[in-house]
Q: What sequence folds into this?
């Protein structure tokens, strides 16, 4: 209790956080909030004077802090200026426009693409209006243009005019995926703007429109980045940029994966060590002159603020900067440092500045790590370090340093394990070992990086010599991290860890590490077991319903059927392009999150890329027991690929035709309706690839009394055949709308036969085919079918108990 009494700042921060979380989730009336804040303040002041400051009203303080957090959240999460770009309605008909504004930071550019943040000033569509706010701009080279247009050289503060498409940033397309829209919102970026062709950007002014101070910071960053890229090529430079400047744009996806798998992702987030180097360097240099201690500290504080701005003011560097400043201020007032209070004050300062930081992954990971280091280290210090320091033996200093490094790393790892499982869906098993070597080496590289940049102002030769030394060190680190990540047991995938499990983990950790009297250990063990049982009960999923998931794979199709009794059916595997494989990005992670490591039946509707593109990657990672397909005879690459995969993996293969019924999935049956052998044989696939659509597999899944009709890419001709042969048997609860909602399908007679309660259209956002067609949408509305679209809704999920089918809202 005495410990809690000495950390008022942390207690204030916790209450403030509760208020912000409440305010971010619920929209409150600001007038009512202001009234409640005034009332709480009045009660607090009245009680203070009444009791002469001896017995403050803790309840009034409690409510005042929480209400302040709620009010701050209302401003940051739910309020925007009238002319904010956030209020612009991005509709399909009106999102082509001209945007004017200033380049906010240095663009991430190459020969084919430029990406930067635009500080908007004017929007020109049907009318011209003044706007404000940030937009993420992506300019892609027009590879089809006959005249080659060079990409413009852009710098912060340049005024530009852009012609392109404004869109909402993409949300998570399937449950559990990264929500890019939320991420950009936390960075105060509200829209995405796509420009096709460098000819559609005009630089109106090369002058820097920002203040002289901002221009100096930007030029300093550009100089540092250019120096590193010039002297530290390739992955070495990308890694060093992350260490020194928090600049991750040059880091490849493969390198990021290696860092995550090895558990050292924090190395490329500018944080406490960088600030410590700034403080030590400044104080050391200023010590050479007769400058008073207070003046040295003030100068150090100013340079910390500059460095925070220089690195982009990410959550981790803001936390480290504020804590570094507080430590320096404590030394001025000569008070004993209470690290929990320092942490609490830094949280309050950052959240008062921008409460959205509370939901930023960097903020959460950074503060969890530092709290864990303080909390866990204090307890392990008494058990190990102090006992070692009190002994005399050879090599005591070196061993003590190694033990302190080990325990500090262990403390941070213990605290962040649940969060890495939630954010990265992985837990690194080699992290402790990797950090023991990577952290000291990265510290040296960081120091050399600072030295390389500073000395380049005086001598290019000395700077390049330091860079060469650092390149060797950086190469060793990256090779070591890659080796750690490549070990079979380096990490385990952990898809099912959630917030409830994380809270339980931290409660158990506190119960174990706060044991002081062995007499009460039995009660702690009972509590720990109770928490584990409670987590299991809360998270236990009763496998008693059929789950149908139309997975969003872009302009293609993939559907997962989860049958009660641990059976699953997958229909198609989506498209594959040069830069996108849905099996890797969407399907396999989705299956893993559902705890699925085996597909009992893979149904291949037909051999077009948008339906089977991901099949190779899928089968490489997930065991497939059986494949059902039409057996389309063609010599395209897809046919050869499927044949070779089936043979290589010894997968059971079924060629289906009209009238086949597949059972063996508990209460589920699959009725194959089309095509029959004769219809299939009459089609010339070798000269007309479109015939692959016309002989797509059509089948009906019946579970109890609920029915789902899958139609793949059939068109009106095939729909007429189905109507003639099956008539009322086509009636279904759910229709997977034919051919992505194309106007060549979904004829009126067909829809009147099916009469679905729900219609699902699988198509990509802003697809070039303009699907779904408005005529198809109107027809579906006219038969009172509720329409779901993967381009708008993301994954579309239903559940059925055999009697009723209900859509599941997962966003």
A:
């Amino acid at each position: 209790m005495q410990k809690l009494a000495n950390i008022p700042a942390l207690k204030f921060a916790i209450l403030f956080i509760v208020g912000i979380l409440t305010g971010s989730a619920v929209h409150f009336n600001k007038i009512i909030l202001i009234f409640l804040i005034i009332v709480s303040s009045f009660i607090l002041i009245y009680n203070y004077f009444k009791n002469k400051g001896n017995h403050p009203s803790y309840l009034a303080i409690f409510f005042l802090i929480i209400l302040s957090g709620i009010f701050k959240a209302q401003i940051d999460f739910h309020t925007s200026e009238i002319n904010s770009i956030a209020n612009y309605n991005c509709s399909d008909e009106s999102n082509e426009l001209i945007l004017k504004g200033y380049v906010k930071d240095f663009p991430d550019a190459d020969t084919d693409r430029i990406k930067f943040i635009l500080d908007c000033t004017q929007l020109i569509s049907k009318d011209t209006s003044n706007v404000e706010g940030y937009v993420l701009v992506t300019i892609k080279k027009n590879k089809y243009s006959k005249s080659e247009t060079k990409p413009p050289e852009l710098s912060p503060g340049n005024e530009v005019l852009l012609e392109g498409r404004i869109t909402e940033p993409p949300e998570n397309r399937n449950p559990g995926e990264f929500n890019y829209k939320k991420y950009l919102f936390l960075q105060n970026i509200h829209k995405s703007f796509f420009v096709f062709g460098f000819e559609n950007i005009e630089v109106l002014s090369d002058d820097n429109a920002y203040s002289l101070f901002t221009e100096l910071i930007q030029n300093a960053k550009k100089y540092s980045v250019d120096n590193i890229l010039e002297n530290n090529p390739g992955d070495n430079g990308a890694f060093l940029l992350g260490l020194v400047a928090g600049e991750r744009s040059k880091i490849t996806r493969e390198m990021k994966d290696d860092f995550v798998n090895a558990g050292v992702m924090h190395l490329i987030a500018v944080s406490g060590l960088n600030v410590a180097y700034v403080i030590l360097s400044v104080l050391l240099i200023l010590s050479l002159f007769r400058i008073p201690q207070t003046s040295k500290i003030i100068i150090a504080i100013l340079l910390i603020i500059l460095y925070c701005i220089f690195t982009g003011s990410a959550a981790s560097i803001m936390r480290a900067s504020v804590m570094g400043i507080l430590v320096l201020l404590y030394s001025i007032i000569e008070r004993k440092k209470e690290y929990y209070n320092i942490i609490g004050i830094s949280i309050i300062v950052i959240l008062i500045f921008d409460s959205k930081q509370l939901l930023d992954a960097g903020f959460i990971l950074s503060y969890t790590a530092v709290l864990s280091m303080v909390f866990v280290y204090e307890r392990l210090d008494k058990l190990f370090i102090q006992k070692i320091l009190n002994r005399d033996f050879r090599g005591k200093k070196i061993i003590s340093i190694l033990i302190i490094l080990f325990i500090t790393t262990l403390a941070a790892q213990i605290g962040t394990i649940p969060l890495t499982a939630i954010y990265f869906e992985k837990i690194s098993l080699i992290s402790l070992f990797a950090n023991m070597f990577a952290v000291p080496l990265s510290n040296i590289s960081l120091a050399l990086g600072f030295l390389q940049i500073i000395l380049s102002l005086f001598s290019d030769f000395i700077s390049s010599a330091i860079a060469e030394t650092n390149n060797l060190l950086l190469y060793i680190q990256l090779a070591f991290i890659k080796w750690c990540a490549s070990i079979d047991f380096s990490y385990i995938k952990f898809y099912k860890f959630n917030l409830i499990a994380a809270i339980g983990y931290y409660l158990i950790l506190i119960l174990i590490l706060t044991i002081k009297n062995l007499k009460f250990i039995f009660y702690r063990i009972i509590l720990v077991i109770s928490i584990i049982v409670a987590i299991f009960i809360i998270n236990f999923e009763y496998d008693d319903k059929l789950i149908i998931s139309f997975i969003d794979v872009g302009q293609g199709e993939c559907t997962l059927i989860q049958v009660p009794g641990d059976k699953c059916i997958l229909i198609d595997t989506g498209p594959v392009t040069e830069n996108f494989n849905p099996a890797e990005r969407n399907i396999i992670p989705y299956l893993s999150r559902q705890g699925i490591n085996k597909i009992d039946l893979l149904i291949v509707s037909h051999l077009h890329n948008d339906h089977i593109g991901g099949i190779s990657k899928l089968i490489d990672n997930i065991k497939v027991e059986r494949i059902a397909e039409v057996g389309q005879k063609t010599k395209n690459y897809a046919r050869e690929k499927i044949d070779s995969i089936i043979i290589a993996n010894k997968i059971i293969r079924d060629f289906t035709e009209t009238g086949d019924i597949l059972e063996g999935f508990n209460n589920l049956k699959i009725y194959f309706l089309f095509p029959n052998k004769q219809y299939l044989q009459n089609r010339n696939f070798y000269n007309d690839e479109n015939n692959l659509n016309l002989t797509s597999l059509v089948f009906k899944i019946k579970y109890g009394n609920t029915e789902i009709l899958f139609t793949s890419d059939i068109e009106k001709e095939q729909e007429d055949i189905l109507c003639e042969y099956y008539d009322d048997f086509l009636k279904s609860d759910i229709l997977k709308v034919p051919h992505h909602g194309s106007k060549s399908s979904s004829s009126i007679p067909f829809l009147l036969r099916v009469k679905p309660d729900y219609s699902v259209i699988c198509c990509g956002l802003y697809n070039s085919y303009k699907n779904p067609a408005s005529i198809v949408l109107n027809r579906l509305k006219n038969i009172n079918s509720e329409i779901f679209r993967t381009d708008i809704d993301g994954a579309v999920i239903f559940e059925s108990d055999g009697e009723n089918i209900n859509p599941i809202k997962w966003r």
About this structure: The chain has a mean pLDDT of 87. The two ends are 41 Å apart (CA to CA). The first strand starts at residue 96 and ends at 103.
